[in-house]
Amino acid sequence: MTTQGRICIAGIYEHPLRKAPDISTAQLHAECALGALQDAGLTFADVDAYYCAGDAPGGITMMANHMGLNLSQIDGTEVGGSSYILHLAHAAQAILSGRAKVALVTLAGRPKSDPLKPPPPGPATEFEAAYGIATQNAYAMCAMRHMHDYGTTSEQLAWIKVAASHHAQWNEHAMLRDVVTVDDVLNSPMIADPLHRMDCCVVSEGGGAFVVTSADMARDLGKPLVVLRGAAETNMGQDHGRNVPLTHTGAAITGPKAFAEAGVTVADIKYASIYDSFTITVLMQLEDLGFCEKGKGGAFVADGNLISGVGKLPWNTDGGGLCNNHPTNRGGLTKVLEAVRQLRGEAHPKVQVPNCDLALVHGTGGLLGVRHAAATAILERIA
Fold it and tell me: For the segment 186-206, what is each residue's pLDDT rounded down to a tens digit?
């Protein structure tokens, strides 16, 4: 059931806080929901579908009850950083099938204020835990292998952080607003060889939300129309790394499918919102989405090629997870928000992409290269 411009993101909101010690996670969800609904010109009474991942306190039904929602459709699918891009596609299908009219999607977290929790159990936990696998060293494995196979350098990875910092300087809410250089990145402490501290995303609190409706309904709400042209999702690597190349991601599966549904190509994309838990995450996804050949990502991102107004592909113009925010480990929702701002022409003037009418949003979840999910969406501004 293709979307083909029939589904619209009618409202968006990003919470301004980056640390929220005095606000509950449930309240953050509710504030984000209210902000997105107000942006769309709707109310909680209009919502009949609700989507949230594992960050919903007490589970998605408890969160829905907290906001007083009367629902005909609910989805708590949890696939890490790709969850909310996947929820966008699921909401689209629910609306197209007539099961819902207004879908609300929320994200919120307080990782700095809430006590640290052990990782959820899984089939491989008893095997991996003994060796101390962590997010940082799992991604470091991917970076090291990419360097071995393709000659990628730490300097090239550093350019991704540099680009993020150039954008974050204009975002008043970004956690890290100082513009950095390649040397700054390389001189930051080593976290998991070859990844330095500045190769890693920030850890923030806060959240965001967006509202999905039919394009027909959205036309009456007064906002610029941002529609979903195509979407795809996948889950790969569940054999715990035995047969999955460490230098490939699920974007190689979801990218072509999303482009095919949208009827556009990589060359048509004016702006890209791509999940950036680490610099290597960005580089590998750019390759797998087709923005450059496999193994050529290092050259593609070097010399400021991701900086808006300077490079060939404006990317994460809010500063992304590397500089702006990363609430919980599911930061994919904020990628949707900045893409909508770009398409509406509402991004900061210093980073706004001229004539931005087509954007790509991509997220990944889990431990990249070991096991992860992925989701891609193509968004378009229409008259």
Answer: 999 999 999 999 999 999 999
Domain boundaries, the chain: 7-112+205-225, 132-202+230-382
Identical fold between 7-112+205-225 and 132-202+230-382: yes
Interhelix angle for 251-262 vs 279-289, to 10°? 50
DSSP secondary structure letters along 233-291: EEEE-TTTTSSS-TT--THHHHHHHHHHHHT--GGG-SEEEE--SBHHHHHHHHHHHTS
pLDDT per position as a tens digit, 129-165? 566 667 888 899 999 999 999 999 999 999 999 999 9
Tell me the C-alpha distance between 201 and 136, whole Å.
Answer: 10
Separation of alpha carbons 12 and 54, rounded Å: 20
- Taken as a whole, the chain contains a residue count of 383
Tens of pLDDT along 314-370? 999 999 999 999 988 777 899 999 999 999 999 999 999 999 999 999 999 877 655
Question: Residue 29: pLDDT above 60?
Answer: yes
Please report which residue ranges of the chain form alpha helices under DSSP H: 25-40, 60-66, 83-96, 125-128, 135-150, 154-168, 182-187, 215-219, 251-262, 279-289, 297-301, 320-323, 332-344
The CATH H-level superfamily of 7-112+205-225 is Thiolase/Chalcone synthase (3.40.47.10)
pTM here?
Answer: 0.93
Helix (H, G, I), strand (E, B) or coil at 14: strand
* CATH class for the region spanning 132-202+230-382: alpha beta
382 CB-contact burial (10 Å; exposed 0-12 / middle 13-18 / buried 19+): middle
